[in-house]
Specification:
Length: about 475
């Protein structure tokens, strides 16, 4: 049987390779930082309330900017903006490693987030420019391979580097990858037709203010307990969301084009991606903290337990993407969400003494679900986007996913810290390894509360995915 790769033209293969390298860089950076938070907190002489912003700042930037940077790609050229993202990401990664204070590190993570947003916003659109509608599932399957392999490499390399070299090297590792990727990006990624659009500065400002206030309020509550000012920030942040919707519906070039949501398959697919991120992506964060804090494992040993799921997801992703081209996205996406839901429910049985093989089994189950959901859902979004709006639609998908990821971390830290005393939660989060049995059991209780919330969100996501409706993939007369 002819392989999927053999059906691609040489030009398509080159473009897809560069896109995979970009997604791999982004994925490496997210998971590799998770394992380093305890060491960063200790060596930079800070506390978790501050060091957690090494994760949050990056997510906040990509959540706010991704759609607009996708639009900039539509205006100035997706290839040009994608390649600029490589350069910004690579340079800022090097500067992150040189940071000698937590505030320097957070600042350079913000710059790194801008580079990541350029890459994320334009990668999906470049695939849509390069592949016909009925072949995009296959292409997105390979990009999901980049996410899975990158996540796996992030965890493995993070465990090795943090344990044996130190946290700065988790950022230095991006530099050689970025240099190679930038070289091939400038060589092979070309600009598609440009489109006359404008940036939505008012909408972006209101959305940014809303997300920032909600994030500040949530992290402050998790760090210091409930206070009037924190509640005020949450309320104001929430009140800004209706204002954002009001602005967007009257904007000619909105940050989030709500007209997209009039198309059922697009609205359900994008909302499913948002809820999947909100309900699931920070589960890895709390599991790593559990392994390091409750179980006393080193970052390397904790990483080894999570690798099987990422390996399986990487192997199955391209096959699932090809299958989605044949049968559509609804079945694969929905079943994938239900499998991830099953993994979260199994995590509810975790105790302070659960056997390690149990965690490995759950990561494998999770990997199967991820391999089904990501390529099928991404393919559904881009297959139903209008041709001139590939950048904006891809940016919107990444924006909603990034907002969900940001919210997932806030929920995880806040719920776990409220379910038990903050002193207990923070001992776990910073990787303290000499916890008493009573303290460990208390945190597991808070961890279970997070899993229950995650499960509820994933149920809603699966319902939306199932109700998206069937789709017809038609061929484009696309030449590459």
């Amino acid at each position: 049987m002819t392989s999927v790769n053999d059906k691609m033209t040489p030009a398509q293969k080159r473009v897809l390779t560069v896109i995979i390298m970009g997604t791999l860089m982004s994925a490496v950076d997210v998971t590799i930082v998770l394992l380093a938070i305890p060491q960063i907190t200790a060596t930079l002489h800070t506390n978790l309330a501050t060091s957690i912003w090494v994760i949050i700042a990056y997510l906040l930037v990509v959540a706010i900017l991704t759609t607009q940077l996708g639009r900039i790609g539509d205006i100035f050229g997706r290839g040009k903006m994608f390649n600029l993202g490589f350069l910004v990401f690579t340079v800022s990664s090097f500067l992150c490693g040189l940071s000698f204070s937590i505030y320097m590190l957070i600042f350079f993570r913000i710059l790194q987030g801008m580079g990541g947003a350029f890459i994320q916003a334009n990668s999906g659109a470049i695939i849509a420019d390069t592949f016909a509608r009925d072949k995009r599932g296959k292409a997105f399957g390979y990009t999901s391979l980049g996410w899975s392999v990158g996540s796996m490499l992030g965890i493995v390399l993070g465990g090795i580097l943090v344990t044996f070299a130190g946290w700065p090297y988790i950022f230095y590792i991006n530099v050689p990858i970025g240099i190679i990727a930038a070289y091939f990006g400038f060589k092979y990624i070309k600009n598609a037709d440009r489109k006359k659009e404008y940036l939505d500065i008012p909408g972006m400002a209101v959305l940014g203010a809303s997300l920032l206030l909600i994030t500040l309020g949530g992290i402050s509550i998790a760090s210091f307990g409930i206070a009037t000012f924190d509640i005020l920030m949450l309320v104001i942040g929430a009140m800004l969301l209706p204002l954002f919707v009001f602005i967007e519906k009257r904007s000619k070039f909105p940050t989030i084009n709500f007209n997209i949501f009039k198309k059922k398959i697009l609205s359900h697919s994008i909302l499913a991606a948002f809820l999947q991120s909100l309900g699931y992506l920070a589960v890895a964060f709390i599991i790593i903290m559990y392994l390091q804090g409750v179980r006393g494992l080193s970052p390397f040993d904790a990483a080894v337990l999570l690798v099987p799921g990422y390996v399986l997801s990487g192997l199955l992703g391209p096959k699932m993407g090809r299958l989605s081209d044949k049968i559509g996205s609804r079945i694969l996406s929905t079943v994938g969400l239900l499998i991830m839901l099953a993994a979260v429910l199994l995590y509810l049985n975790l105790t302070a003494t659960s056997p390690y093989y149990y965690i490995i089994v759950i990561t494998v189950i999770s990997g199967v679900g991820s391999s089904m959901f990501y390529p099928a859902n991404s393919s559904a979004v881009m297959a139903n986007a209008e041709g001139g709006d590939y950048g904006s639609t891809a940016g919107l998908l990444r924006t909603m996913s990034n907002i969900g990821t940001l919210g997932s971390f806030i929920i995880t830290v806040s719920v776990a810290s409220l379910a038990v005393s903050r002193s207990v939660a923070f001992q776990i989060f910073v990787g303290t390894s000499d916890l008493t049995g009573k303290v460990s059991a208390a945190f597991v209780t808070g961890m279970h509360a997070v899993f229950i919330i995650s499960a509820i969100i994933l149920i809603i996501a699966a319902i939306l995915s199932a109700l998206r409706g069937s789709e017809t993939r038609r061929r484009d007369n696309l030449k590459t």
